[in-house]
Design a protein that fits this description.
Blueprint lengths: L2 H12 L18 H21 L26 H12 L1 H8 L6 H6 L1 H9 L7 H8 L10 E4 L9 H16 L16 H11 L6 H16 L11 H10 L3 E5 L4 H10 L9 E3 L12 H10 L6 E5 L2 H9 L3 E5 L5 H7 L3 E3 L7 H5 L10
Parallel strand pairs: 1-2, 1-4, 2-3, 4-5, 5-6
Helix pairs in contact: 1-4, 2-3, 2-11, 3-7, 4-6, 8-10, 9-10, 14-15
């Protein structure tokens, strides 16, 4: 179905290798055209959604509107420079349309890809803002290159730390008749369900059984707190993941939670799994955060060296794991106080993922702590 041809033209025109978005060792000849077309459509739709998300009724002053038709207000969770970057990337899709429209392109390509790309490109500026080129090429020579973002799940992508602690309290009451407080689980945040539950159970001398306790926890959590579409996504999380992906960065979920919880949370948060190149969870590891194993595994699966990965974390153990993996790390204070996060020592601190722009990630320097 002309997959190799389409992949080649797309890569030459946009700089984005769609083949990298499929499982490792997948050859172009093995792919169905519909799969490749869908991935290209996701790229185009991400660009559209990014632009649409900046259209709102906020009355705050617009920043540097003269610099770009995609300027956005200072309260918008997506930075102007990112919007310019996406505009630049999408403008390049016009070249795809032009090349694919030649006689050597398949009829299927022309019918299903060219119209979508044309519609996307026509909704964006017709010229490339000067700052966009620098942004898309990540040419800040003072900051090391960034090729991948590794997202923790609980407290970063999903507002799930509080409901996890609440469900854990119910587990302690039901299994051990213990009346515990949600805050008692905070020291064990980000270390996996076994430590999260076992830390409090053993504190009170309860006869902790890992399998029994985890099973009860997932039962309560999945049936009461994290139902599909329940809206537990952190504001701005989906947008930042889509932004990174549209800009050609690799993305991963790297969580100390079991895979069953990762899947449930992403569904409850309405964050599609196709936005991530890989998902790494606790199931395959003996050592969880603060050990670097999960982050190193994600780096390896993405094919990106640790020095070119940026981690976004909300827990002390996660920050420590990123440091041990030799990765730069951004801390968000959704689960901890600013003081506790500062003590953990990330490179930069934000209130939440919605306050982080793609520009913040691309220009992150090591060991430059700034409280925002």
């Amino acid at each position: 179905m002309h997959c190799p041809e389409f992949l080649y033209v797309w890569r030459k025109a946009t700089g984005v290798d769609l083949l990298e978005r499929f499982p490792p060792h997948t050859g172009a000849q093995k792919l169905k055209f519909t799969d490749v077309a869908l991935e290209a459509e996701h790229f185009a739709l991400n660009c559209i959604c990014t632009i649409q998300s900046s259209q709102h009724s906020c009355t705050a002053p617009v920043k540097n509107m003269a610099a770009s038709k995609t300027g956005t207000c200072c309260r918008c969770t997506l930075s102007q420079q990112y919007l310019q970057t996406v505009a630049y990337s999408t403008i390049k899709t016009r070249k795809v349309v032009k090349k694919l429209s030649k006689n050597n392109a398949s009829t299927l390509v022309k019918r299903h890809i060219c119209p979508e790309l044309n519609r996307t490109a026509n909704r964006l500026p017709s010229s490339i803002p000067p700052t966009a080129l620098a942004a898309s090429n990540n040419n800040d020579i003072s900051a090391p290159v960034v090729k991948a973002i590794l997202f923790d799940m609980d407290g970063v992508l999903c507002e799930s730390e509080h409901i996890s602690r609440q469900a854990a309290c119910e587990v302690m009451k039901e299994l051990y008749n213990l009346d515990v407080q949600p805050d008692e689980f905070i020291p064990f945040t980000g270390t996996g369900e076994a430590n999260f539950l076992g830390g409090v159970a053993t504190k009170y001398g309860a006869p902790f059984n890992v399998d029994e306790c985890k099973s009860k926890f997932f039962e309560i959590y999945m049936t009461k707190y994290a139902l599909p579409g329940s809206g537990i996504g952190c504001p701005g999380a989906k947008e930042l993941v889509a932004a990174a992906r549209a800009a050609g960065l690799k993305t991963a979920v790297a969580s100390s939670a079991d895979r069953v919880k990762v899947d449930v949370n992403l569904s409850a948060a309405d964050i599609p799994q196709y936005l991530f190149d890989t998902i790494v969870s606790a199931d395959a590891f003996e050592k969880l955060k603060p050990s670097p194993d999960i982050f190193l595994a994600a780096s390896k699966q993405l094919g990106v060296p640790p020095s070119e990965c940026v981690v976004i974390e909300d827990a002390v153990a996660g920050v420590q794991a990123a440091r041990a993996a030799k990765m730069r790390v951004i801390g968000v204070t959704t689960s901890l106080s600013v003081e506790a996060m500062e003590e953990a020592g990330p490179d930069r601190i934000f209130k939440g993922i919605g306050d982080i722009s793609l520009e913040d990630v691309l220009t992150l320097k090591e060991n430059v702590q700034q409280k925002v």
